[in-house]
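During the reporting period the student researcher (J.K.) took over the structure-prediction task from the postdoctoral fellow and processed the backlog of single-chain submissions. One of the processed entries is reproduced below for the supervisory committee.
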Amino acid sequence: MITDREILHADYLKVVQRKVVEKSASRATIACVIPAYNEEDTIVDVLNALLKQTRLPDVIHVVINNTDDETFYLAREFAGPHEHTYQDLTYQTEVFVHDIGVNTDKKVGALNYGFSQVCNDFDYFLGVDGDTILDKHAVAHLEEEILSDPRVGGVSAIYTVGEPKKGLIAKFLAAGQRAQFAAFNMDNLLRGRNMAVLGGQCSILSMEALKTVMVDNRQATPWVKDSEVEDSLLSLQIKSIGYATKISARARASVGGMGTLRALDGQQVKWNYGAIDLMWPGQRSNTPGQPLHPNLRLRWSENVSMLFNIVTRMGFILLLAASLSIGAYVFYPFWLIPPLVAVILNLRIALSIQNRSARDIAFALFALPAEIYLWLRIGHFVRAWTKFFSRQQTDNWAAQARAERGAGYGFLMPALVALVIAAGLTFAWLNLPSNLQSAVLAIGWPILYITTLVQTTFMLRKALRRHHGFKV
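J.K. obtained the following structure tokens:
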């Protein structure tokens, strides 16, 4: 005799089965590609995170290139079919591991190789870096958001930098990078979630959009090897053909940070140089609307803001030193306002970080760490613009790789140049007649007052704006 409980259980199974069929029939297909270069420390965690997603990618291709460590052998252990069940839905995927050996096009070559494996069989391309750990809901959120509007060509996850396990310098740099990423992400979230850069760390891209970019720009591949910031250029091209580029409101990923001054310098100089390459008028004939393309406006804003930071800080130091040298300095409480506003802004950003740590709060609250990190970024900014204007032919990808291995001293150049300039200015100042010294101070301080006031007003505006519940 069949009981009521058994009948209810049978009906429940039918509902579950119907749910599976309807879900699998309607969902899009996603191919994940992981370009990996010497990622033996992270590749296992990256793949484990992907295989525990509440919505698995339909296929995962690990494309290993130029590697001389154990990345291939560690990734190879994951090759083959996998499945994961979440809320009665079972997803299946298969991992393929490719070692393409020497690859002169580096990450771009690995991405294009992965694209060639999946472009004809899947709806969406999910790019994940070999050191990026996805939150377990990341793929599901990215899929939901890109499917919500056919006008969206790509959605980037919200990135943060993982906490290092040891090393005082590494922890300091991680806090700085977390604050830097948080400020960048919040700016994009509050601009209608319009994302200027679909970062290669973790972004989902429409295959249709990628193929259209290739046709419209007469490219053989979506990513081109002659750009220092391949993801920025592709984002610009996707925007140019009429698609929106967005940042997710919920999908999250933790990326590997730069743990040394050398490595950070290599990464940031490459990023800055590549951005300048896209921004500068006439530099690229295949970027319509340059230099005022919508995706480049935030880049220009960032560079102008950094220029203000340089002018106000260098101006204050030079004028202060000059005034003290002739006993003409008078303290005004006004100069306490800019650092106070900066602390408020940094603290507001720190409080917006999802899963923030005590170190994030301390980094913002004690002004000195944030100020030191800003001076490091100023050095990267100056180095990138100097390399660009000098037309110095440098492989910045290779330079970053050498820096991450602990080679090179380019990161010290801004400090050495600053010392030489300071010595020259000191000599010139001490040899000026007293009347000219007074005239310089009489003109310099008012100009600095006005410049600092403008900058402080913009900082205060950012500190007081509503975040609308967004977390970064």
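The committee noted the following: DSSP finds 16 helices and nine strands in the chain.
J.K. will present the remaining backlog at the next meeting.
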